[in-house]
Write a structure and sequence with these properties.
about 140 residues, mainly alpha, about 0% strand, elongated
């Protein structure tokens, strides 16, 4: 998002290290520093975003996670696919392996999001479209 904003107002962000821990904050501070006072609309929009504070918009909320876990219990996987842990996404579960993420994102989340969001319009339909593009 920050890179998009930088491109939008012609700010070079290539000097920041992509894998640096404070990358997001550095780009944010650069954006704030580069915008002139006369660009008040852009400045107000950027000042509303605080990288340390969540935006308050949950994509996979409790209801969606419950639906994914329920679908996982009903889904029969081929024998060559190792199932993901049933409690993924909880603090009790801990870290997942790359293979577990692959199974979750290419099977379980796809099944549930298509079931829940296929007939939606607007934001959910767009998010489903983008997620399906990612999983290819």
């Amino acid at each position: 998002m920050f890179e998009y904003l930088c491109d939008l107002i012609n700010i070079n962000y290539s000097d920041f290290l992509i894998n640096a821990r404070a990358y997001k904050n550095n780009v944010y501070m650069c954006l704030i520093g580069q915008i002139n006072d006369e660009d008040s609309v852009k400045r107000r929009q950027l000042l509303l975003y605080n990288p340390a504070k969540p935006l308050g918009c949950v994509v996979l909320g409790k209801d969606v996670m419950d639906a994914i876990w329920a679908d996982m219990r009903r889904t029969q996987l081929p024998t060559w696919i190792r199932p993901a842990p049933p409690n993924w996404g909880t603090s009790q579960r801990g870290k997942l392996s790359a293979d577990q993420y692959r199974v979750i994102c290419t099977i379980h989340v796809v099944v549930t999001l298509v079931r829940l969001w296929a007939k939606e319009t607007g934001r959910k339909k767009e998010m489903l479209k983008h997620f399906m593009d990612l999983k290819r």
